[in-house]
Amino acid sequence: MDSITIPFTIQLPEELPFVFSLQPLIERLQTLTDTRKARGIRYPLDVLLLVAVLARLAGESRLEPMADWARLRAADLAALLGLPRATMPHQCTWSRVFGHAIDVDQFETVLGQFFAEQQASAEVPERGSIVLAVDGKTLRGTIPTGQSRGVHLVAAYLPNQGVVLAQLAVDRKENEIVAVPKLLKQLDLTGMVVVGDAMQAQRELSIQVVEAQGDYLWFVKENQKTLHADLEQLFAPPALAPGWSDPGTDFTTATTVEKGHGRIEERTITVSRMLHDYANWPYLDQVFRLERRVTEHGATTVEVRYGITSLPPQVADAKRLLVIARTEWGIENGLHHRRDVSLQEDACQVRRGQAPQVLAALNNVVLGIVQQAGHHNLPAAQRAFTYAFDRILAHRSMAS
Questions:
Q1: Structural contact between residues 167 and 114, judged by C-beta atoms closer than 8 angstroms
Q2: How far apart are CA 30 and CA 15, in angstroms?
Q3: Residue 164 vs residues 49, 79, 87, 118, 341: alpha-carbon distances, Å
Q4: How many domains, the chain?
Q5: Per the domain annotation, does 79 fall within a domain?
Q6: Looking at the whole model, is its pTM more than 0.85?
Q7: What are the tens digits of pLDDT across the range 102-125?
Q8: Pairwise CA distance, residues 20 & 161, whole Å
Q9: 3-state secondary structure of 117
């Protein structure tokens, strides 16, 4: 089959504006290596992946409903994509192709390049202007009965843009500490602040990020005992003896308060440079204490976390650091939660070969496309797409 060259742009009626183009994605998918033997291939790899994206955009998040969605629209999809047969593959074929016909590392790279191109700018980004959150997630549906470990993926995610720039499977013999440096080597970190939890607070990773023209912001726990103890001591109220005055500090603070649904959440960050020359940590500039106070139904809970960053105060003051620190939750709420809940990722028990990672990557594509189209409510966007896409297919059928 010849490569698809049709411009694939979908637009709803004016009362439901939802415009996007899949043409750049199609062109990227056409560069993938199909590891199947050429003889007997009925469905090109790029077509299968494109149809899978469309099915997921229409709300079909699991493999069997996705196959049914494509089968029920086989004639229309074949006409739209120029296929010689008005059929779609059986669920087993989808599982086999996703499990063994795709070079998953190449696939992840291609998708990362696709979204990176959407964010590209002719200007060199200013230091600290782009936030990149790094975190891992286990696909719970891939955990075999009686075991505790399934497929674990670590992703580099732009919370403000809603796209995944890179994703990597963590080998069973490794952990995120080993995988994250490999992940970040795939990216241009110029102007980026890499945000991570305590697991990412590693000396070698800090050096790697800064020497790649980026910056880091790590939260720190007892896994770095000396550093954590220094932070606790720095921000602890001084124990003053009678007659002694309070020693001076360089502390600066910023606070945000959010109210809604009977809940008040107050976040206060206290920032200092007093460990800049004292702590033995690569490229350390500022440290902070982040207090989160939540009052709900008359009860108040307080959480305190400590962190470090290579960003100097002239690039990121207390107010800016508070914004950056909060984006650590962006990958949990904007990516992991949506994949788990709206796309039912943890309920998917496909375990064949590379299929779990391929399906997770397709979920990343759907989330990125919807976010880039300006929609933050994924279920609503999926309903709008279903409405528009079925109308387009019906219109094509009547026209033909």
A1: no
A2: 34
A3: 17, 32, 32, 12, 18
A4: 2
A5: yes
A6: yes
A7: 999 999 999 999 998 887 776 889
A8: 15
A9: helix
